[in-house]
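Limitations
The structure tokens in this dataset are predictions for the assembled complex, not deposited experimental models. Users should treat interface geometry with appropriate caution, especially where small molecules or nucleic acid strands are included. An illustrative entry is reproduced here so readers can see what is and is not provided.
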Amino acid sequence: MLDKATAKPATKTALNDDIGEATRLELYRSQVNIRECEQRAYDLFLQNLVKGTSHLSLGQEAIAAGFATAMKKGDLSFCTYRGHAHTLARGVPFEKVLGELMQRDNGLMRGKGGSMHLMSPEHGVMGSYAIIGAHLPIACGAAWRAQYKGHGDVSVCFFGDGTTNIGAFHEALNFAAIWKLPVVFVCENNFYMEYTPIGDVTAVPNPAGDRASAYGLEKIVIDGNDADVVYRTAQKAFEKARSGGGPSLIECLTYRHSGHSRADPAKYRPEGELEKWKERDPIKIYRERLKHFGIGDDVIAGIDAEVKRTVDEATEACKAAPNPPMDILTTDVYADGGFAWRN
Amino acid sequence: MAELTYRDAVARGIAQEMTRDPDVVFLGEDVAKAGGVFKATVGLLDQFGPLRVRDTPISEQAILGAAMGAAMTGLKPIAEIMFSDFFAVCFDYIANEFPKSRYMTNGQTKCPLVVRTGNGAGSRFGAQHSQSVENWCMMIPGLKVVAPSSPVDVIGLLAASVRDPDPVIFLEHKSLYPTKGEVPDGEILDTLGTAKILRPGRDATILALALMVPRALAAAEKLAAEHGIDCEVIDVRSLVPLDTQTILGSVAKTHRAFSVEENPRLCGWGAEIMSIIADEAFYDLDGPLVRITTPHCPLPAADILEDAILPTVDRIVDRVRKTLNA
Ligand SMILES: Cc1ncc(C[n+]2csc(CCOP(=O)(O)OP(=O)(O)O)c2C)c(N)n1
Ligand SMILES: [Mg+2]
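Predicted assembly:
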């Protein structure tokens, strides 16, 4: 079994390195965007303003930020019900995401999808999928289109550690490998499925990494709480995909600070585990990183304040937004816009 | 005009659409080099090349998932699932993914794809390679469901399915592959949601689908010749969208309705149609609505058992005759 304490500490990088200041600020802002918005979603849930369910990425922000920052316009993201982070990271406005969580008319899908199904093709967010494993083959299909049409885009597919034990994961990995598809599979290993530790139900220590060789792929297991590491790994995998080198499977070690979903107090986790991981909070790590590169506290505080203000504004807009109107109840079942099935 | 088998009509229909539109692609198990286990896709690989006609591993979820991802991003995939019974191992895509994505995203996404599959009994393959699963698909909002009974309908309805902007389940009947029919030259394009009156009649309406269509026609001939009962036979062809107007119009004329269904009895497609007739044409009726179906039972392998469990010409004749004479 994998020792959760062995997730490697952040490595110091040389000044004026490959990433550079502008991108680092982007990586930081993206993580703070997610942190602030997810925290707000949780607060709104406590106020009974987020209905249905919600799955937060608190503590896992570096993965969404690192990959999205390395993506180009036109690259496609496929994520799970734990997808607010990936949706925000591609530039979907807070109001659209929070509005959907609050099931208001201003939401991304006007309340018809809910928190588990965020999608915004205009931002390259090709959907959040709530059936475990379903989107890995779908990402392969989008990559097939890129391959066939000679488009240079990459499909990036995010999923959890628990997803490595469902058939669709293995079908998709083999499929992508034999067709050499430009798709990057990203396993966010937060060490738990819903409540069961992944090690209790998985034959190998690294749920994704140790499966890679079965599909002729390199074992890649990285520190998922260090946005620099994630960003560099993403760049490399994207380059490989774009140059016809086929898929990659990347396991990112991370930890969720909250429960699995809105109602889960996460009592199944051993005492001290959360605290240990909070020492390796991705945002904390990244603030240190920025300082190490000579970025001042004022710049950091400025970003923090600006993000908070924008989330506040979005929250107010959502609170003021009306419920979805009844006239969308049966629209868009079929391409003609309606739900007619007979004459 | 040429005589063509139902099997060859499949390849011709796919070729017609792939020639017309370079975004049409085709994938499935053994479909390219081998030309399909039913030999319905022979020649397509040579004609369209290995990037558009692709053999897949035995990965039904990957086949349907990849078709969906390609469809969402601009291609028009045709995916083959070898036997319709295998829908059970990739049903997530059929039930949860294809048909829900447009609605859930409030119209932000599309899923224009066709799933072709070998459906139905008659091959003595037993309970897991012989089922008629049209009712598994018909009940799902967001899907369209089509089942042709003749070579010309295979081409025309397949073309309509490929050009349709919604996900279409295209059920080819395995026992019809060797059957022949006249097919005109040139492009053939039909319309989804249209039933066909194959034999006009005055005394009763018989609704049938796929393999049950030739049986309903044979029964109608027998009923006319031996019992003086003149039946109108309708090939329903498209379950979703459903051409209720043609059906209700026929019942208004004949005042009697029978369905001949290969699917097992419970929740078969005929139950839905009969409920529509009961609801909307009740006062046109002169007698009970009768469903002739396979019983609520798995399918046996042995030829004499399989033949006995499906609706037969004699069973149709018998039920219609007894109901009309009651
Ligand atoms: C096919 C399927 N089985 C079970 C579930 C219920 N379920 C939802 S989330 C989840 C845990 C998934 O764990 P993991 O893949 O590690 O993702 P995480 O939630 O940790 O991000 C389960 C079992 C589901 N949605 N789909
Ligand atoms: Mg997990």
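Some entries come with short summary sentences. For this one: Chain A touches chain B through 53 residues (CB under 8 Å).
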